[in-house]
Design brief:
Mean pLDDT: 91
Largest sheet: 8 strands, parallel
Number of strands: 8
Order of helices and strands: HHEHHEHEHEHHEHEHHEHEH
Distance between the termini: 30 Å
Oligomer: single chain
CATH topology: Arginase, Chain A
Number of helices: 13
Number of domains: 1
Strand order of the largest sheet: 2-1-3-8-7-4-5-6
CATH class: Alpha Beta
Structural class: alpha/beta
CATH architecture: 3-Layer(aba) Sandwich
Shape: globular
Strand content: 5-15%
Low-confidence stretches: none
CATH superfamily: Ureohydrolase domain
Bound molecules: manganese (II) ion
């Protein structure tokens, strides 16, 4: 029987995520990046282990895990508008190495990270592995994470990973005056990975879902780069199903897809145990619906969950809500029986 390459891809993806075929457990590797150098509030580095403890045993006991810890790195405060940039670059380099090695041994990297600056790791690893191919990025987040040291009001680098992926440099009217050292470090961040590919993605390779808290500089970038984005208002008018379809269509030109899920995309009523909660976000059901669809994509390169801070809101721990959402989404996507 003649089988097209697309059918083979679908078949491989099916085997990879079907526990009864042994695929899911054998093929997935959980890589926890336990760093919160990019966040304003400390504690998100404890998020990965807190989350993994709450997930069903069938997910975490049999799946290979690798922990990337960074307690040996400095909290360098000298770069005012790119806080801890040196330690973040080192964290990313370690993570890129692990993700690249996992993919090279035919494993699917599932990333559980501290803060969202780590989101640049899988994108950079992809361009190491496939410099000629196109990665589509679905960023589910309350924020656009598209600042640069030239525009960031806080200097917290969890607001910058996508600007680095897009290779955005100094704007015409920079808000912040950046010293030479930080300029060079930012360039290094844009060029992460052994092949130093920059930009790593084009603006047409990116879709935001549920962004709702943006600074004017970020709004300008979204407009000038024509980046596809859906707000909570779009969710209410179009419905999630339509957004999922539009997001998939918008990235249909890409070879692979990366899904990055910042838990602050969910509404603070679920939990406020994340560094920067914003009202009007996804319900648990919304998050499950989104993730289960995207997790089932046959060309999924990597999935990341990030920004769980177990030191915040102990009345309503974020790791428990996030684990409930993930377990349900994995089940619906066919990853869990
Ligand atoms: Mn984020």
């Amino acid at each position: 029987m003649w089988v097209s390459s697309f059918d083979l891809k679908e078949l491989f993806a099916y085997i990879c995520r079907t526990p009864s075929l042994g695929g899911f457990v054998k093929n997935v590797k959980i890589i926890s990046i336990e760093s919160d150098f990019g966040a304003g509030k400390k504690g998100a580095k404890l998020g990965p282990q807190a989350l993994l403890k709450e997930l069903p045993n069938s997910l975490t006991t049999q799946i290979q895990q690798e922990r990337i810890t960074v307690s040996d790195l400095n909290e360098n405060q000298e770069t005012t508008f790119a806080l801890h940039i040196d330690s973040i670059i080192e964290t990313l380099n370690r993570s890129i190495k692990s993700i690249t090695e996992a993919v090279e041994s035919n494993q699917f990297p599932w990333i559980v990270s501290g803060d969202h600056s780590n989101g640049l790791a899988a994108i950079s690893a992809y361009k190491n592995l496939y410099p000629e191919k196109k990665l589509g990025v679905i960023w589910i987040d309350a924020h656009a994470d598209i600042h640069t040291p030239y525009t960031s009001p806080s200097g917290n680098m969890h607001g910058m990973p996508l600007a680095a992926a897009l290779g955005i440099g100094m704007p015409e009217k920079p808000l912040n005056k950046i010293d030479k050292y930080t300029q060079a470090a930012w360039k290094q961040m844009c060029e992460l990975g052994s092949k130093r590919v920059s930009p790593k993605i084009q603006s047409s390779d990116l879709v935001f879902i549920d962004i709702r808290d943006l600074e004017s500089e970020e709004i300008e970038i979204l407009a000038s780069y024509s980046i596809r984005h859906f707000t909570p208002k779009d969710r209410l008018t179009l419905g999630l199903e339509a957004i999922i379809l539009e997001a998939k269509n918008a990235l249909s030109h890409c070879d692979h897809i990366l899904v990055s899920f910042d838990v602050d995309s969910m509404d603070p009523s679920i939990s406020s145990g994340t560094g920067t909660p914003v009202h009007g976000g996804l319900s648990k059901q919304d998050a499950i619906q989104l993730l289960s669809h995207f997790l089932a994509l046959p060309n999924l390169f990597s999935f990341e969950v990030t920004e769980i801070n177990p030191l915040l809101d102990r009345h309503n721990p974020m790791e428990i809500s996030a684990a409930e959402v993930l377990a349900e989404a994995f089940k619906k996507a066919g990853f869990l029986s």
